[in-house]
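Hi R.,

As promised, here are both runs. First protein below:
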Amino acid sequence: MILDEQHPGPFVYTDRMSERISEAEFQQHAEKAIAELERAFGELAEERDIDVQVEGSVLSVTFEEGEPGKFIVSPNSSVRQVWVSARVSSFKFDWSDKTPGFVYAATGETLRQVMTRLTQEQLADTTIAL
């Protein structure tokens, strides 16, 4: 593959992330992010056939409507990342002070943006916004 100005290669988010925050800061940011997603999915569950649960600090969203499936969002303190398993893929999000929020380095999308996109795909409904 030739990489040049016209073909620069894959997008790489270059903000230096998670390695600079403490475990306590990470836990605080992760708990807040998971709580926000729990609220957003909880609101969606009032309209759609999904089940939302948090056990410990792990968020599980089970879809009964559309294509059956499950999303798992969990903090990984040892590497200061939030991990998402959804739609036969996994995503690892690093904290960015610049955003501020958890960011998927491969695309530069925030955790909420990725979760919205995955939910839209899961339910085949592009009008969904978390």
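And here is the second one, sequence first, then its structure tokens:
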Amino acid sequence: MFRRLPNQLPQDANYPPNLRKLGLFINENHQLKQIDYPEDAYRYSVTTNERYNQVREEAVNICIRQELAARLSKLGIERLWLPSLTNEKPKVDDEPTLPIFATELKALKKAKRVVIVVGKLSEDLGIWDWKSTRGEAGMEAGTVVGFVKDLLASSFGGGVDENENEITAFIMPNPGQLLYSYKHNTAMTLDSWASLPRPSALHMAPLIDEKMNRIEGSETAEKHLRYVFGKIVASEAFVAKDAETFLIGLNDGADQVLKMLEENCKLSSLRSNKL
């Protein structure tokens, strides 16, 4: 019987989370294009090896997540980390944390209206659809950035300036990135988990420990939404008592919100004017 030693196994794919090094850039129309062929869109298949394509795409996604957070920050929307409920990510590496998007806390407390958007349960935070985001639709249409811009530009939005009398705030829970990697100190979706580095190209994805790789209060999408609504939306420490709330749900995210409100009378009695 023959066997291959670990050092003889093919190496796993490895791509840097840097758009330029990946041969890509985001143009003035917010579209992902190839540096060598600026008119050509992003391509998933760059090799015949599916694992290499998968890992490369995750590297691209990491770059887009960073760009998304930066663009929202310019609009007054920051990451709010759970369960610490702070805008600064906890520095303790062994404390699982999960980000949501929310208007900067000082402005959030003063908001007269709060728009809460719950996306797909399997999607990354702030992403409507990855295919659209990486494709011709681009970042504005494929992510929540375009929605926030339209919201703030409308008469309903009222801006994000904390000195304004009529402020509309924004909150977006994160029911998709419920797995936590201690090694990478980040929350992620199941797709991102499958793209984590492996000892070799022949190894399986890292096993998920249903206790260690979960985040307190957000072990499931249902628990996560209950946490966000109970600890943030229903709390006067974050949302003003007289603020109006407007709920928007997408696909199975909408189903989960309705289920939560039906099962919890306290949460369903929140200041929700529109669903």
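A quick note on the second one: The chain has one domain: 76-274. Let me know what you think.

Best,
J.
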